Structures are given as C-alpha cells and as structure tokens.
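Action item from last week, closing it out:
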Amino acid sequence: MKRRVRRPSVEGTGRRPLGKRRVPLRKRLLVRLLFVSALIAVCSVAATAWLAVTTTTSALKEEQGQDLAADNQILARLSGYAATHPDWAGVRHTVRALAAETGRRIALTTADRTPVADSAARGTPLPPRPAASVDPLHTDTYTDSGAQLSGIDPRVVGPYRITGAERAKLDALAGRLKACYEAFGLRPTVTRIPSGRPLVTGPGQGADLAGYVAEKCDDGALNIPTPTERKALDRLSDLAQPCLRGLGLGGPAFVTLDPTGRDLLAGGYVVARKKTKTGADDTRAARTCVLDARRTQLRPYVAPPAQLFLGIGDRDTVRFDMSPANKAKVAGAAGLVLAVTVAVAAVVAVRLVRPLRALTAAAQQPPELHVRVPVTTRDETGILAEAFNDLTERRERLEAQRKAMVSDIAHELRSPLTNIRGWLEVTRDGVVDPDPALLGSLHDEALVLQRIIDDLQDIAAADAGTLRLHPEPLHAAELLDQVAAAHRVAADGAGVVLGTDADPAAWLDADPVRMRQALGNLVSNALRHTPAGGTVTLAAHRDGDDLLLTVTDTGTGIAAEDLPHVFERFWRAEKSRSRRTGGSGLGLAIVRHLVAAHGGTARVASESGEGAVFTLRLPAAAPPDREE
C-alpha cells in the first residue's frame, strides 16, 4: 500500500499564494523609480539655481571692486609715484589714467580725509573705509627684492641718486667687468637700479656672477660708493647715532652700501657687527636703528602718507536678488525639468518592469511545465532572463536524471531481491531442498545487494562532502601489485593476462583503501569488457608534479558518442542493462568521486574495437625518509 506524502499547505505556513500577493504601492519598483527620479530632478534644479545665484553674486562683487590683483596693481603704481615725488601735486593725471585702465574709482586723501585726487566727479562721497595706505617708506606690497622685509619701496632714491659723471664712471667699470666675464664664456647683462648705479648680473633670474670668476674679473671697484653715495651714507650714520647710543653701541655705525640688495634686513645697507659690553650680538638691533634713520633721511624726498579709496562711493555691494519675473522663469524651468524627468522615468520603468513580470509569471507556473521566458533585450534584464532559462533547463535535466536514477536503482535492486524471494518461496513450499549450493546462490545475491547499497552510500557521502579519507604515503608499485593480486583469480578465470608496470620512484599521498577500491573498479570493468586472450595492464609513472595511474585493456573499446557518459551513474554501454555483463553502473561514478576527493581527475580514451585507457591523475609525493 502506497503512502501519500502530504505537502504543507500554503495556508498552514501563514503565507499567501505567490500569485495572489499584492505588492504595496510604496514598494513597487515603478513607484520607487519615479520617486527617486523626481527627487533627483528637484535636487538638480535647486543646485542649478543656487549655482546661478552664487555665480552672479561673485561676478557682481568682482565688478564692484573686490579684485585683489587690481588693488595691488593700483597700490604699486601710486606707491611708485610717491617714491619719486616729494608731494602729490601732480598725481591727478596718474589717478585718472589708472581709473581709465581698471574701470574703477580711485581717490586719494590725507589722514584727515582731505581730498588729494579723485577720479570721480566733485562731490561724490567716499567709500566707507579706505582700501590701503600709500606710504613708500612703510609698504609690503611691492614685489621687488628688499621691499617686503625693509618696508621701504626700493624706488625711493633721495640723496643716493648719483650724478651724470659718476654714472659714466660706473658704466665704464661695468662694461669692463662684463667684457671680462664674456672672455670666460659667460653672457652677463648690465641692469640699472633706480639710483642710476649699474649692476652686472647673470643671464638667468638676475643671478650674481661674482662667484664664478671673481678672482680674475671682479676687483670690487664697481661696488665702492661714489662721493654722492658716501655723503648720503655718512649722513645716515649720523642720523643713526642717537638710537645706537641708546643701545650702548657708541662710535661709528660702519654703514656701507650693498648695491646688489642682498642684505634685505637693512634694505641694501650693511651694518658692521657690534658687540655690547656683555658680549651679546646686537647687529640686528643696530640694523633697526639704521632702518629708522634711513626713513628719516628719505622722508623729505617722498610724498606724505595718503589714504587710498577704491570702489563706487558709499553704496554697499549689491547682491543678486531675483525679480518676480526671474523667479517665475526658474519655477517654470524646474517644472519642465521635473515633468520631463517623470515622463522619461515612467517609460524606462515600464520597460524594466515588463520583463520582470514575465519572469514572475513563468516562475509561478507548475514546476513540471519547465516554462521559459523570451529574451527581448541585451541588458541586465535580458541576462537575467537567459539565466532563468538556463536554470529551467538545468532543472529539467536534473529532474530527468533523478527519474532515471530512481528507475535504475529500482532495476538494480529488483533483480537480486526477486531471485532471493523466488528461491525462498520454493524452498518454503518444499519444492527445493535448502542444500549448500542454494544457500551459496542466495548468499551471492545478498552480496550483490550489499555491493549496490555500499556503492550508493559512497556516492551519497561524496555528494554530501562527508567522504572520509585517511591519507598516508603510498608506494605506487605496491598499490598496483595489491590490486592485481586481488583480481588475479578473476583474470585467470576469464583468460585475460593481468600485469603491472610501475616506476619504482613513484609515490603518492592517498588513502590506500579508497585507491584500491578505485583501481579495483577500473580493473573489474576492464576484465568484463576484455575477451579471452586479451591483456589488462596497470601502470604508474610520474608526469611533472603529478602521478599518472593507468588501466589499459585490449577489449571491445568504447564508441566516441559514449565517451562523455562513461562516468555517469547507472550508465552502461550494454543497452540490455544485464548485471551479469555490465555491472551495477556505479563503479566508474565512484572512481570519479574518489579521485576528486584526492584532488585528482579521471579521464578515458578509447576507440570502438581498440580497447580503452583509463587515466587517474593525482598529485605526486616525495618518497618518505627510511630509517636505517
């Protein structure tokens, strides 16, 4: 009586049937895609509007006088004017020229806001705050060497401007020094500082050439102060005396000229080292005194300090503010972008959802139908449809194999059970006496059943990954001899010559019981398919890092179309499926699993009528150390 296996009902699991479920609106792919698209569109419009406002405001700021580069340019030009003029009397022309070049309003006033010069019309109010103070004796905006550290514009010359005769003499010295450098293959240039003194510099970045050929060319005559410069230096030394005496540094200040401008602390004026009574080095303090004295000396030659105003009067910077019309334009553009985004997203979503619905409908069909879905696209959805079809095909193939396996197992078990049952029934009815021959036959049938069950158990363990191995160093020659000895009687009974051919140095690390089982299955299979007078040879030899175990027979061979199925379960070349000639059909499948468990592979090569060669490729092992 067959038992009916009840499947758990859908209601009993607390779940609704898959085909009757309704996806909530908020979880539908179409709704979520539309929501995300709308959110992206809103964020894009908002970001674009913010960027437009920010950019416009920045442009307006630059147009209204916030450009620092232009400020520095204006300040440098006006500082240069103050450095070369004792007052601001003629600055009006310069201010107007700068205003025309920069497009800015420029105004100069005294410290008490008394106008000096203004590019705007009379009566135009000044900006709230001055942009900078113009004082060539206290500046840090000029880029020439010496201005940043000394604070004095290097264009301030004053009493240090040399006369025409002195300039001619210095030009002659500079020309002679240049010619000497050129004789040594150098190409110096002669430049002139604001005081009129010439300087001989190198061809690159104004480098000084004195270090190259100073011993041959530079005698120092060009650096000696002229009478005009000496007079100004003496006056500078006198002006520095009160400050030096306050520091305890009496005597001459030893101030001399450094026309190269390398001594930045003093702005080109070198002060000799002084020692206090305590031995401390007060050179830096002495230079500060000289720097203050220099400002005092140059003050009559420069224009007085002035306040510089830049901008557009007393109005604040205008920030960008959209009018109602502009706001309407932005809102309309945002609405249009939003509508287009939603429409495009809806079309894309429908195209994406349609194949997914087809997949869902196919998956809801009964499993025995093995429904496929049409592949209409080449995108990710199409790839998913192809994968679904492949899965359906594999499931159909596995179902067919499962049915075939059940049929094969039933066939293999039915024959010995039928024989055992028949003999037991006739013995029970007294038709046949239970003599030793009958009992032996029943025992043989029981062994067949036991072998089939053991084979199925081995395959099940291999499939589940629970097949246990006990590897140990194994000599290939001994393994082949053991297998041959176990099948020697069967080979002699079949009239087949069974031999071995093993490399004495061939070793492997494997489970000896499982390896004898695998090779035994191959030998049994070879003996069944080799006629009397044939040979079966077991061989072992190294192939690089692998060990090859081969079983070669001279039997009937295997057809080319049957080779891919040799290691399948319950497959036999004899279509009659006789156990007496074809075995159970599990031996070669077990061989493949056992070899795979050892990290190897099983292959077969054969031609119909030419015999077969089964090859087991396993990792080779080094011979174990032998104790003497």
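Closing note: The first strand starts at residue 105 and ends at 109.
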